[in-house]
Structure formats: C-alpha cells, structure tokens
Fold this protein.
Amino acid sequence: MNYCSECGERVRVRVPEGDSLPRHVCDACGTIHYQNPKIVVGCIPEWEDRILLCRRAIEPRYGLWTLPAGFMENGETVQQGAARETLEEARARVEIGALYTLFNLPHINQVYMLFRSRLLDADFGPGAESLEVELLDESQIPWDDIAFPVIRESLLLYYQDRARGDFPLRSGDIVRVDGPPRRVEVQMHKPGVIRAATP
C-alpha cells in the first residue's frame, strides 16, 4: 500500500501508538490500514457414498480438482459463504452441517474453514469457475491432481474419519518449508492450550 484510501496521502509502515505490530499508517489523516488474514469457506458436499469435486477453470491451479470453496464476503456467515461458494462453483444446493476442518495457512495469510454438507439433490453442474463437476467415490479421487494441500489434507482426514464412523473437528496449520524443493508441511493441533506467539 502506497496511498491512503481515505485522503490520498502517502502512508508509511510503523507501529501505531498502543499497537504492537507494524501497520500502514497515514500521517496526514491518522487512518490505520489494517491488513488481516482472509477467511476461505467451503464444504465437502456428500451424496450417498460420494463427494462433489470441481475442476478449476481459473488460476491458480487451473485444471486441478478442489472442493467448492472461496473467500467469505462481508455481510454473510461462514455457513452462508460455504453454501454460496458451492452454488457458484458447482450449481449445487447443500444443507450445511458441522464444521469439519479449520486450517491456518500463515504463509499466505488465510484461514480455511470446511464444513461437511449434504447435497439436497443431484442437480449440479460447472459454474463460471469450474471446468467440470463430478460426484466421486473414494477410489475415483484424483489424488495427484488435487489443487491445494489444504484440500488434500481435508479429504485424507475425511476418508480416515468416515472409515471410523466419527467426524471430530480437525484443526491444524499448513506451513511453507523453505529450501529446495519448496513444499508445505501439515501440523495437526492436539486438544489443549495453544499459547500466543510473543510479538
């Protein structure tokens, strides 16, 4: 950010009084421009023993498979956002169930929240952001063509939990590991106290 959206003057990065983190601050009008993580909401749409996957028609990861999910909009709940994204990407209507996975992706400033959901009918098709949409059973999941690590991990957990007949809330972090080859690592949270990092 170079210019203030309130008055048009230049901003600079500094720690505002009473804060502990550097922010974009306008010295002319005093506006502090907070930049916070984005929330991505979506669901695992279930129909009998199959789930609905979408093949992406947009970047990033064009042509790869994902669950219907996207950025939450202002004025909606996380459940409403998950249902909206499913309708937009797969033209599918769902009943949103329990929150199933919550993953932090601090390296890209995102938080993913995926819900289990039930398709209300088998009427679905590709939306503007999808090349195709398919109901797939576990043996048909294109594991090598899953678009994002968070989706792959959520699907792995889903099938593991489905085999046990129990779907606890799963949470964890997906972090980038630097160095060649660049990759991500999944760190699952265990029940207990998570202490805040020291600023």
